[in-house]
Amino acid sequence: MSADRTETHGHTETHEHEPETAERGSRLLGAGLILVMSVCALWLAATGQLAIYVNPGNTPFIVAMSAIAVIASIAVLARPRGAHGHDGGHEHPHLEDLVHEADGTTSALTGDPRPTRRVLSGVLGAATAAFCAVFALAFLVLPPRALSASVAEIRDVNSAGLLTEPVDQTVQLAADADYSTYGLREWAALLRQSTHPEGLIATPFSGIGFVTASEESEDSFVLTRFVVSHCAIDAQPVGVTVYSPGWEDRFEVGSWVTVDGAFAIAPDASAASPVSVAPESVDSTPEPDVPYEY
């Protein structure tokens, strides 16, 4: 912000040319949004719901940064509005003030903003408070929701980029392998990478996920979950095909189910994988508190 100083009768006059209204409004808006978002992040962490948005491994970092942001934003909001500069003297009307008075931007006698500027400042402050209140209310009232099946349908299920990451190279097809701890990500990686997936035939399978339609067979659905690397933005869907004729009569797309059975030769010869899950049971189940795999 620039200022002109002139000496008049031993006093120093300071005249601000740039209005403080816009600067203060931007400061309040930015600090208010940071405060609200940080408090919401801390609330989600305290209630155990932050995992819906980010990988749990990032929770300590997010909590620490949010706490710092809360303190910093409160300090900014509590800072008093700066006064016009004084260098040991008093301000007096100046010729340049008269020019601004003529074009209606300031008052030469008071140095205060004209009524329109004061109204703008009030409106901006009210809008900032209203926006922050609505933002906070949405987080507190509306329950956090995980990514839905509609998102999975527009993303590439079992994408090559995801299932060829180093973490997926640990899956192995072996007669003595322990598959009891496998999630859908490990199963999907195993089916994709194995040159002889027929070796899985008769291997027991148990999994939980939501239902998405198979693009290869009307008699099959894909048991699907999202894998989150850092946050929900980078979530990628993975899944295993389940052969279950008439599944559409029992389950809606997006509904959560548990599947127990074993791998078998895929009845549909057009299927991309020669094996799919032949279920012994497919039962509805509530959405897990943590719906993602990591």
Topology of helices and strands:
Elements: E1 3-8, E2 11-16, H1 20-46, H2 59-78, H3 95-102, H4 115-141, H5 149-154, H6 160-163, H7 184-193, E3 204-213, E4 220-227, E5 236-243, H8 247-250, E6 256-265, E7 275-284
Antiparallel strand pairs: 1-2, 3-4, 3-6, 4-5, 6-7
Helix pairs in contact: 1-2, 1-4
Protein described:
This protein folds into two domains: 139 residues, no CATH class; 136 residues, OB fold (Dihydrolipoamide Acetyltransferase, E2P), CATH 2.40.50. Helices cover 36% and strands 20% of the residues. The strands form two sheets. The chain has a five-stranded antiparallel β-sheet with strand order 5-4-3-6-7. Strands 1-2 form a two-stranded antiparallel sheet. α1 runs antiparallel to α2. The N terminus is likely disordered. It holds the Pfam family DUF1980_C. It comes from Labedella gwakjiensis. Keywords: Membrane, Transmembrane, Transmembrane helix. InterPro entries: DUF1980, DUF1980_C.
